[in-house]
Amino acid sequence: MAQVKLTKNELKNQKDQLKRFERYLPTLQLKKQQLQMVIRQVEAQKRDVDRRRSSIADDLNDWVSVFSDDIRLDTLLTVERFVTDSGNIAGIDIPVFVELEFNVSDYDLYVYPLWVDRGIDALKKILTCDAELRVLDRQLEILGEELRITSQRVNLFEKVKIPETRNNIRTIRIYLGDQQTAEVVRGKISKNKITRGASE
Questions:
Q1: Residue closest to 23 by CA, chosen among 161, 188, 168
Q2: Could you list the mean pLDDT of each consecutive 10-residue stretch along the chain, which spans 200 residues?
């Protein structure tokens, strides 16, 4: 703790500082709550996407294994563009998944079985889910880091700055009160000396 000046000006500065801290703390606490809520929402969204992906993959695996003629669907499909946007949560920019754009290779309809079209659609959905999960992971990473920083700031204000400033105010008040009492006592002593000197 830095040494505080024991003056009336410093008392005013400390009081102003305390008002600023107490005004800023609720904003930080609100931001912390909002971040916690959004993190829970993103985690739930991630679980939903993961369940959807697993369901699509299970369905695809079931009927591809039945009809498989050693055809690899991933050779017919490539990701052309991964499109994301930017969103803002509690003043933090986060990536938001928009879409995946695909390029489907031309294939001979007479050579490939009928289920290939359905398989390509399912593979598009799986790859889209994978891309969405990557973006959600990135969101959680960014939001988690911001929550950590915000929590540190809340703790700094709650546990350090506000108690320290209150203690400084108390110390300055005690010192100024002692100084005022000492001045009164000195004034009375001087008065007594003057009245004694006048009476002699």
A1: 161
A2: 81 93 94 95 96 90 62 75 89 92 79 75 91 96 96 95 94 90 82 73
Would the CA dihedral through 151, 152, 157, 160 be positive or negative? positive
Task: Output the pTM of the full model.
Answer: 0.77
Can you read off the two tokens belonging to residue 87?
A: 């969103």
DSSP-based three-state secondary structure for 72? coil
- 3-state SS, residue 91: coil
Alpha carbon separation from 53 to 59, 64, 118, 135 (Å, rounded):
10, 16, 16, 15
For the chain, the farthest-separated pair of C-alpha atoms sits apart, in whole angstroms, at 133
Is the dihedral angle over the CA atoms 137, 143, 147, 153 positive or is it negative? positive
CA dist 175 and 170 (Å) reads: 9
pLDDT value, residue 70: 60
Phi-psi region of 103 (alpha: psi -120 to 50; beta: other; left: phi over 0): beta
For the chain, which domains are there?
A: 20-158 (1.10.287.3240)
What was the pLDDT predicted at 170? 93
Which pLDDT does position 133 carry in this prediction? Answer: 97
DSSP E strands in 19-172: the ranges are: 77-89, 92-104
Structure tokens at 52: 């959807």
